[in-house]
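hey so i finally got around to running the thing on that chain from the lab meeting. sorry it took forever, my laptop kept dying and i had to restart like 3 times. anyway pasting the input first so we r on the same page abt which one it is
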Amino acid sequence: MENFYIDPEKMIREHMLFMNNQVLLWHNTFRTMLGEAPKEVVEEAKSDSRFADKEWKQDPIYNFLKQFYLIHANLLEQLVETVVMKDFKTMQQIRFFTRQYINSLSPSNYIFTNPEVFREMLSTGGDSLAKGVDNLIHDFVSSPVEALKINQVSIDAFTLGEDLACTPGKVIFENELMQLIQYTPQTREVFLTPLLIIPPFINKYYILDLDQKKSLVKWLVSQGFSVFMVSWVNPNASLAHTTFADYMHKGAIKALDTVTEVTGETSVNVAGYCVGGTLLGVTQSYLQSHHDFRIKSLTFLTTLFDFSSPGEVGNYISEQSLPLLEEYTRRKGYFDGRMLSLSFSLLRENNLYWSFYVENYLKGKDRVPFDILYWNGDSTNLPRDTFQYYVRNMYMENRLIEPGGIEVSGLRYRVPRLIFSRLTRPPTVWQR
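ok and heres what got predicted. didnt touch it at all, straight out
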């Protein structure tokens, strides 16, 4: 009781509102049985696409189901808000998992309470459900044993190297953790200082090289940049002992060594994003501790160094869940990337999970090709030791913001002295 209390006045007020809405709903429903048009007691948010079909408003039964659900959903959400807790993170987790529960119960997620699904079933003579079952079985086969991962696009929707990741280049180095790609120059002259990109090791690299209109890599080489990209391996249990330091030495630093060797340059511009950016920051600290200043500039995209507010993804990690996650990775030897992809989808559950659940399984629709969702589903595993180190030191204990807070290869991490540099004159170019 010392850590939280319940606001009784607010709780009574919300219950009174709930009962009043219930009375209005049944009153309006009775009047619709006498021929009047359905009236709304509560309305969904304008951004809520679950109830976009006109029958949710016009049909008395579906209108009743929708409003009955929304009234109870509002009550549950507001009851959570009557609880006042000292621990902000715990309160955020309660809100998050309550929202997950509420949205899972939406009438739009069930066959006989979704007018679109019911129409599709009648118009196809049940074939839509049969196709949906086929889709469900296919996804079960490709899912981890712990959960159902909905494939948002067909795994045959794209061919890497043809539709996506098709900017010309070649692999110039590889080891057990990564391959290093050098992209073919597309201009007569190129900038002297090469650009090395460090992507996250929780996703495939080609989010920066999708189709021709979305490819950052294609744009960079067309502007005269000499671009190199790390492509991380998708590890299995044989790499369970791979550490965060291994990703630094065998990944970021080895890529930097190779780029300087291939180009003959002594300085490199380096960009990192997501976990790749976090790795890059730690790498720069390590290099500077060894008086290695080859990195000329650093660019960070969607990178966290301060994990005090990591967003909703932090709701998955707590003192209670961390031992379970560690035991899970201990048994498997890695954290399954498909579970990671599912976790990210549930951050926007109505758009990235339940909408596909309805379309793929209840309506039996063919998956629509979408390159970003294809990449999102093309996830990679995390080695056991790397996962446990990263989650505990960054997400759980937020050690990265502390001077000397984490240790990598015997050295205490400190914020690099040079994080950003600004060009004061046009970059030097050389002619091919």
